[in-house]
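I have a small job for you when you get a moment. Would you make up a two-line entry for one protein for me to read? No commentary is needed, just the two lines. Write everything out right here, beneath this request.
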Amino acid sequence: MDQQNKAVDALKRAVDGYWNGTYGDTQAAGLAAAMMQEDDPVAFAQALSQLLKTIIARGRDALQQACACAAEGATDARAARMPDPAQPARGTLIACCEAAFQGVMGYTQTAAWASAFVQSASPEMLEAEVVDALLYIKALGRKALRWQCCRAGRR
């Protein structure tokens, strides 16, 4: 397995861990620091793109399983601003995560945005953004669970 696939696989495992709520702040900082050891900006951008693609799939699944009251609110939230791939410095990784989760950002857009973001951001900013995004994924996992409120018998 080449270095690029290792970074993507590590990030996939991390997304699963955060989505399920098993990881916290310490793991986020460690993973972000490990990702910063990646010398290849293309591999880093592909790892971020894969993270966003995973969130797109998780958001789509969450919306399909959502109760009627949650699905209505989620549809209204789709009007959220999508980060502009032409100006990645204006959008944060968290904004991209939210846009991906809401279905506002597609697979092609995530790849373009991630590439532009990696090229424009400083290493310190990238590391901080990855930490924040991983912790935000944990919140998105909780949001997906709340969307199932009526199906679980809770109101």
Summary: Residues 88 and 130 are 15 Å apart (CA to CA). Residues 41-65 form the longest helix (25 residues). The chain has one domain: 3-15+37-146.
